Structure of ArsR family transcriptional regulator:
Amino acid sequence: MRNYAHPDLADVSIEHLLHALSDPVRLDIVRQLARNGEASCAALDGGRPKSSMSHHFRVLRSAGLVHTRIAGVQHMNTLRREEVDKRFPGLLGAVLRVAG
Amino acid sequence: MRNYAHPDLADVSIEHLLHALSDPVRLDIVRQLARNGEASCAALDGGRPKSSMSHHFRVLRSAGLVHTRIAGVQHMNTLRREEVDKRFPGLLGAVLRVAG
């Protein structure tokens, strides 16, 4: 299977990033990755339907928030925290503090 | 004409707030209100169509970001900065710093 595409953070607008964070499922994924580090899609789905989760991960990748690498049959996700913080200083930290 | 309804910030979720901020027109309105204080809808529309602006102001009000009062024929808008900051400490400041 092919690898996923990940945008350069320079090409991500603040509106795009905020939109990606404006959904409870996606915000929860970001919160979990920030707290626990790399995790598989399966570990993050909370029992939600696979098709809906694929959509959410796609949105998170396109906003530069999540990196997904393929490791055998698993898709492993990490938060692109350093890059996001460099592009939007203080923003993700503020969201995560408020979102718990 | 009747007054507009404004939600209690306690009833606004972070996702709702982030969604309201995830559009360039709405983010621009918030930025202008933060910088310049109260302004009429006309002063904030940047020549955009009235129907589209009505939608954006409605979204901003429903997310607890903007208060609109009717003053004769004008609709005057303010940012509910203090209330938003109390409900979501540091969030709006971080967005505005990044959004310029």
